[in-house]
Each structure stands twice: as C-alpha cells, then as structure tokens.
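Slide 14.
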Amino acid sequence: MHINAAVIGLGVGENHILGLLSHPSCQVKAICDINEIVLQKVGSRFPSCTLSTDPNLILNDPNIQLVCIASYDDVHEQQVVSALRNNKHVFVEKPLCLSSDELCNIAKELKMNPHLFLTSNLILRKTPRFIELHDRIATGRLGEIFHMEGSYDYGRLHKLTEGWRGRTPNYSVTLGGGIHLIDLMLWLSGKKVSSVSAVGNNLAASNSQFDGLSVTSSNIGFEDGSTAQITSNYASFTPHHHKLCIYGTNGTFEQSHLGAAYYWSRDPNEKLESVSSPYPGAAKGDLLFNFIDSILKKNLPLVSPQEVLDATSVALAIDQSIRSQSAQSVNYFYLN
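Slide 15: predicted structure.
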C-alpha cells in the first residue's frame, strides 16, 4: 500500500517533504505555498510534485491521503479541520491551533473520524538524549519524579521583531515554542497537569513590531501533587536550546547550555555522570516515518492525537492564566 501525501507551507515544510520521502511507502504528490516565489524555488527541487498556491486544492483532493500542514499558525485550525473532513490524516506543525474553541473543533472532527490519525511535530521525542532519559525514568532509575524545570530558549528574537510571527495577532510564544517543553515533560513523566499559574513580559521586544509577550513563565501543578516550571523565552541572548532539569527521589538529570549530566548523590565530592548521547540529534521531518508507519499498521503514532490535544490544552491554560492574572485549571478535550 502506498500513501499519497502533500505539504502546505514550504518554510519548515520542505523538511516535511524529505521526511515523507524517507518512507518507501509514501509518495509526495503535491506541494503548496501562498508565496509563488517560494513555491517555484522549492518546487524546482521536487519536479515530480504538482505545485499550487491554493491550499484548498490539496485539502479537497480525494487522491491525497496525508497532508502536512506547515502554514502560518493562524490558519492551522481551519486547514486541520478541512483535512479531517476530507478524510485525510494530518501531520501539523505546532501549534495545533490558537484557542480553546479551535481545539474543541479539532477534537470534534477527530471523534467523528476515529479512523484518521493526527500528530504534531513535537520533535524532542526523537532526541536520543531525551529517549535515554525517558527510559531511565520509566525503569525507576531516578525514583519518583517530584519536580521538573524547563526553558525553551529560542535565541532568535529577530523572528518576532522582523518576521511573520511579529505580524501575527496575539502570537503566543508558549504555543509556538514552549509547547515543546510541555510535551517533553508530559511524555517523560507520564503525569497530568491540573493547574497552571503564569506571567510574561515583552521587555526585550518592546520597541519593535511585536506587541505580544516575548517571554512567558509558568508554575505547573500535577494531579499527583508534583510540580514544574516552564519558560518560553524567545528573547534569550543565547543559541537555540532546551534547558531541562528532572528531579527524582533517586537522582537528577540536568541539561544546560554547558552540557548535560546525571547526579546520583547530594555529596559535592561525588562524581557526576556526564551525558554524551546526541542532542538535538533529530531533523525537523524525523517524526514522519513513524507517522506513516502508524497509518499503515493502524497503530498510534509516537505522539498520539490525544497527547497533541493534551499538550495544547496546557499551553492554552498558560496563556489564559497570563491574560486573567490568575491560576487556571486545564480544560482537556478527550477523544474517548
């Protein structure tokens, strides 16, 4: 069986094309971008693909079974819903959507089409260093996880002050970036968030086109009483990086810009365990091979539809907490 796929949005979407083509049972039939210059440039590298500036031509094409959506954030929900209604599996760049109403719409479509799969490009699940960490947590090596801290240090402030993100109304650094850390913590811990309390500022980008928040920081409470802190820092004066600390009753994992290590003792004289497994160690399209396999074998993908909804629900609660200046419970949308 072969899957016919298409890609909408050819910025990061070009990596999706490569990810799709890495699977022997997938053919990329069409690509789309609203920018004709970008479309022709990318199209020249994939001459077998049909080119279009109209996403609806792909979304309504009955010969396409899988669509990758890498368009601007504010049209994701519209295109995801349209793809599902037209019987297509969906691989969508984060964020999945921008509001609880939009998330509700997507959840309804997924419930009405249980044979269709959806996932999002939460690529940290493919990082070898985090896979190793996940395995150690799952086997109890770190003991009970009681606190986590993470910071999505974007290191690319110009993409807010000069790029399309800065021109997007109400652009969310939590949905656009911090969601990687949200999903990572949910996956590593297997825990469920019950409440969030968050703040943010735009001090670093205050004299630019961007009128949103360039930094958000949230305190997270889990149902089992454990806690976390998550920061989405697009203004960081650093290279792009994912800082992470996982605190367990038997040990601690810490990753900073300077490296990563496991600590197995509180004694400062005890030697730490340095980590050499690759980071980030994954390309933007690396989740697609697994997604295609999941469609063919009818198994859940590495990032399941419910997990995409859950991570998005937490991110939306963080943004709502900032707007309301109060703690928020998380509004989940369940598929079963």
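Speaker note: The radius of gyration is 20 Å.
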